[in-house]
Amino acid sequence: MPVTVLLVDDEPLVRAGLRAVLEAQPDIEVVGEAADGAAVIPLVRRLRPDVVAMDVRMPLLDGIEATRAVLRTVDDPPKIVVVTTFENDEYVYEALRAGADGFLLKRARPAEIVHAVRLVAEGESLLFPASVRQLAAEYGADGGNRAARAVLERARLTEREAEVLRLMARGLSNAEIAARLLVGTETVKSHVSAVLAKLGAPDRTQAVIAANESGFVSPG
Asked: List-wise, which residues carry 4-aspartylphosphate (predicted)?
């Protein structure tokens, strides 16, 4: 089955460019478009996309609030990639903290766009881990750090779970973590699931943000 994608951007040319790049791939299908975040929820419910590629800045409802709305109100929500002009943008970090699974630059090359959609759909790796660390270093507020530290302390990760979280924060996939630790992929999947459950994180991105903001791993 192809990876299905919903495009959300107030610029028709951006949507047209993303559609052209993605639909050139045999395993990706663009199932719909919207010009504002306010239209996302009904489209997600009707089209059930695997991935939403959503502009972070839109006139009525921006990508941050649209991300929160989708994750709060939609059962089995899609993966969300926010699309942005600037990489080092507080809006992008707020979208990630709101639950987005990654971000994509509008100037990205076609191969990078395709890779990002596939990677987020698979959900077994972190998109642009170095950039996430940099954003956490710049925009992770002191209050957020205290809260994140409390989450990590309450989680009481085992030594192996802590090791897996550190490797997740570096952007390693389950297969790469398995090779590094000399264990099976299924074992790694079990550790990742345990880490997410203990942190109360819905996905790897949120776990890695908590790890960076808490000081468990060094941001930047």
From this structure: 55
- Considering the entire predicted model, what is its pTM? 0.83
Count CA atoms closer than 13 A to 136's CA, side-chain side. 28
Contact 42, 87 (CB under 8 A): no
| Residue 82: strand, helix, or coil | strand
**3-class DSSP state of 139:** helix
CA 192 – CA 96 distance, rounded (Å)? 19
- At 41-73, the pLDDT tens digits run 999 999 999 999 999 889 889 899 999 999 999
Q: Residue 189 corresponds to which tokens in the numbers above?
A: 């999947």
Task: Tell whether the torsion through CA atoms of 28, 118, 95 and 139 is positive or negative.
Answer: negative
Beta strand spans in 76-132 (E): 79-84, 102-105
Catalogue the E-assigned strands of 9-154: 28-34, 51-55, 79-84, 102-105
Write down the residue that tokens 């009525």 correspond to.
60
